[in-house]
């Protein structure tokens, strides 16, 4: 199950959005999340300088214990787990960010069109979204990855497709309320062109919940990615994402139980950072979009 | 047993986990300890059908349990009649007379006749219906006929090496002729093996029961349950916690750990060899020198030590360690030597990398390929790993649509030309070569060996094969595949045959 | 009004199923790799592969295959597995009870944790328990759900060696103890996780009720706190809680693919995963359609019941 969006009709006048970032800074949990994310992103960016080893170098024996030489031990090919986590963070962040951006762009576009035009187009688009939502995210992603082949890009596209309906529904709901407002009617009466109204007035006003959803999708993406990697569909070795490291850890559970434990915590820290940031954004925007959790 | 129980219980209580329920669960666990009349086997390989003509997908666990065969091989590959009373190879090795046993009863209830044997060979020789048996049967057999009520005569196309004949017979099952087609056998086996199928829950479990009319005598254990699993960790846990008695195909790393508490049965040496396949249709591997460089960049010793945990040895040629093709000199010609590999790459000039295809559901290949990748990177060759799901991997593999890939070849311990059973080792329609034509020296050696009975000719052809495999380097021996079974120490009589089919008739507690 | 709403929802359901069947069909056939290869084996010749395709009817044009499939579905025939020839309905019939039992166990575990924790947290929002519940929820949702399964396997299967880590489906009615033993680990994995999802809903639903004026009135009359919590707050909060449990069940119909794989539990998720990897088209189609159908029906049922029970919800 992916995110369940309980979209409250957003009551966002342009003035209310202005203080959102300032109010985010005032929610301690959101601030903590933002700082943690920033820290993780920095670690990922600076990985080549922070990492004690080349993440691909098979320098030691396999499964060396935690020691001064390898602060988190070594993996099945004698590579430094800490260095691999740092570089894995890059791939996981990349997956999370690009997945949510892709899903948001596609979902918002569908929601705008469906909401603004209504009619059969709306019906068809929303039923298609229903279909996507009715198949468990992991299951759908498995089929999509099988279609597109292995590797990072198909993985990102598959997870993004699964996340599109939530954005589409949210945006459509916003559009439906905003469409009826006086200022839109006034613009229409004043003879503003259709694309103008959609892009300049309706789109900016319906972005609020989508921004929150963006962060939620990012954390869901990290979890879904780890599930797909567990099933052997994912990042191509020797590179590793946190998800593919967890899969490798599970395969070696009997020999080195600490390995999957460490990687699990790394994933949890990343997801919790996204979640906290998301909660902060929610409070800042006054929306109630919440994450249901990824049951995989 | 009791001490483990109380210790674990105490520790658990200390850990404060579900304190109330645990003693009950733990006790129930030991109440449920393996019933002596059933052997439960966990298998990583799912069964998709029961057709023994289709052996590559039929799990090896079942071949010997469900089916009866004309003859069998003992541990030294000496033929022993099984569903046959005897067989006799005619003068000049141009014919074989098979005499059937009168007491072979199929699971369908019928008693085997010569018609069943004839129908079995006819199916094997049929392009559309013969599957794995087609290649050998159609190459060797000219005519199949029943001579009388107990004898079948096979007329061969040419004088044929004895080992090739027995290799064919040992893989020929006996099946009720009314049921002998792929569709019927898919879900209902109709041979005469020691066990018959009671219930099959696809992808979940298979329940077998001793077949009372089995011609081989009495089975030691009346019931066999096979459970299919996908996660290696869960399977190891299942063996460790006593939920299963035999774990088929544990990863070598797990097997080396399990050895402390369990017995480990190893596969027949050379039954399967892992090859680094090279598609000569794909750049840069269309260049022979690049392939030769690849050959020298495989650190087989490290693979044996760190991936196989010494359960399998290094391999240099596609044949098994005891095959007459083998020559100790090969190792020094193509062994691991990064300097030599680097020099060859320099000679090829302008080559910077290529692609390796790996199946995402094959953790061992993933490891091996990363070892090769890492070595190649150190000499300036970037091997990109392209991970595909198993079905896509197989499709591309047999189409030759890849750069390099790891793939098994079976039967390396059998007669040398039998290697062409593998589609990537064929002498015609070979997907790894342009227009399907492998090097002429290879095809010539294989074709000559089919009929060669003169040792001098055989030796010459073996040398020719070695030379062409080394020179053309498109099927690089990597390691002997360690086929393993881990099982409880009080289970006795578990065995496997020459092709690693599990032999269960004598197994029991 | 409720009737016309029902009719409209049924129309939507039909449309979802139609779009779903076409989408599933297109998707499956877009997957590279071929079922005949999985059946005939990697060493089969081109002629053998063609013979298998013909036998399975895969050589017919796609629209023809689709129509014959739809014709079958309308008469309750979902086709048969290409690999084994077994009817897809038979396979589903084996797996649905297994998945259902797992879900029920998981939901029970989830509720056993979430109900008391959520109610208490709503009652005493600043208590240690409330904070612990909040932390539990955040922490558990941050791990991949199957990670817990991995840890449980290591703990009970490999370290203490007391529980089977390769779970059979043992029907509860036939053997309650066996069912409990075999389903415990995967159910615990999913249940602990589900508790994290549920605890938030229980908490917010109950605290919403506690804030209402009539609770103050009951309290003024001198009712005990336990009475207030159970008989008034929790009872009134039951509808949203039941709804979220219903939705969780719906989400589970496709099985928990990864958790089922971790424990080797023979549920629907593993069936479809294996079918995808062997390109057993009819099985994938059959299961996906079953999932789409059940999910849509459950959602519709929840909405309709809601609309019927609660006049405040605008039927729209």
Polypeptide structure, described:
The complex is a heterotrimer of chains A (296), B (509) and C (316). By secondary structure, chain A is an all-alpha fold. Chain A has 13 helices and no strands. Chain A has helices spanning 14-18, 20-26, 28-45, 47-50, 81-117, 119-134, 137-148, 152-179, 182-189, 194-205, 207-230, 242-251, 258-285. Chain A is elongated, with a radius of gyration of 21 Å. Chain A starts with 13 loop residues before the first helix and ends in an 11-residue tail after the last helix. By secondary structure, chain B is an alpha+beta fold. Chain B folds into 3 domains: 15-57 and 193-267 and 485-503, Periplasmic binding protein-like II (D-Maltodextrin-Binding Protein, domain 2, 3-Layer(aba) Sandwich); 68-183, Dipeptide-binding Protein, Domain 1 (Dipeptide-binding Protein, domain 1); 272-480, Dipeptide-binding Protein, domain 3, CATH 3.10.105.10. Chain B is 34% helix and 21% strand. Chain B starts with a helix and ends in a 6-residue tail after the last strand. The model of chain B is unreliable at 1-34 (pLDDT under 50). Helix content of chain C is 77%, strand content 0%. Classes of the chains: A mainly alpha (296), B alpha+beta (509), C mainly alpha (316). The interface between B and C is large, with 65 and 59 residues.
What keywords describe this structure?
heterotrimer; B: 509 residues; alpha+beta; D-Maltodextrin-Binding Protein, domain 2; Dipeptide-binding Protein, domain 1; Dipeptide-binding Protein, domain 3; 3 domains; 7-stranded mixed sheet; 5-stranded mixed sheet; 21% strand; disordered N terminus; C: 316 residues; mainly alpha; 13 helices; 0% strand; globular
Largest sheet of chain C: none
User: What's the helix count of chain A?
Assistant: 13
Distance between the termini of chain C: 10 Å
Distance between the termini of chain A: 7 Å
Oligomer: heterotrimer
- Low-pLDDT residue intervals, each spanning 5 or more residues of chain A: 1-16
Beta-strand percentage range of chain C? under 5%
Assign an overall shape of chain A. elongated
Mean pLDDT of chain C: 83
**Class computed from helices, strands and strand pairing of chain C:** mainly alpha
Percentage of residues in strands of chain A: under 5%
Structure summary:
Chain A is an all-alpha fold. In chain A, 71% of the residues lie in helices and 0% in strands. In chain A, helix 2 packs across helix 13 and helix 5 crosses helix 11.
